[in-house]
Write a structure and sequence with these properties.
With about 200 residues, the chain is mainly α. The chain has a single domain (about 5-200), classed as Up-down Bundle (Four Helix Bundle (Hemerythrin (Met), subunit A)). The chain is built from five helices and no strands. Helix 2 (about 20-55) runs antiparallel to helix 3, helix 2 packs antiparallel against helix 5 (about 160-200) and helix 4 (about 110-160) packs antiparallel against helix 5. The protein is elongated and about 75 Å long. It starts with a helix and ends with a helix.
Length: about 200
Amino acid sequence: MILSGGCSKAYYGAMEKVGIHKRDILVDRVENARDAQSEAQHQFKSALDQFGAVINIENSDLKQAYEKLKTEYEDSREAAEKVSDRIEKVEDVAAALFKEWSDELKLYKSAELRRSSQRKLKETRSRYRRMLASMHRAEKSMEPVLRSFQDNVLFLKHNLNAQAIGSLRTEFSTLKGEIDGLIKRMNESIQTSNQFIAEIKP
């Protein structure tokens, strides 16, 4: 959960006093968001592997299989929430950084230096928006996967029998396709984040 506007401002001010600027915080938070996406990738892969194992078990193991699948779903939901939280933190510090940068343009006496800084601000903001859009695409692709996963976990819970396993088998390829698409978008977002970090670091 992000800090309120006033708390964020106080936090950034305190960090600046110890030599940690908004640009540094932005880089750290983009790295954190990238790492959270990487962790989410691994978790969704693990969930898919567990789902694949469940559809090949014997009836006597159904209760245990349900518990394992439920745990994987809960871990996946938690990983998705962590990604969203990290993206919110990126947006919060980026908004503060770009506002400060824009306000400080008025302080230049040299028109040439102001134009140069303004150009750099425009370029950085453009790269940031591309990266953020990629993050949000990856974030949005998690929700349909989680909904499908939840449906299947609930179905197994309510129907602990061979027929339930048969139904899950028909769902597996759809879920696999959704997770494959999610992982692809996550990879694109991670790559875009790495490019942004390389470009914004001093």
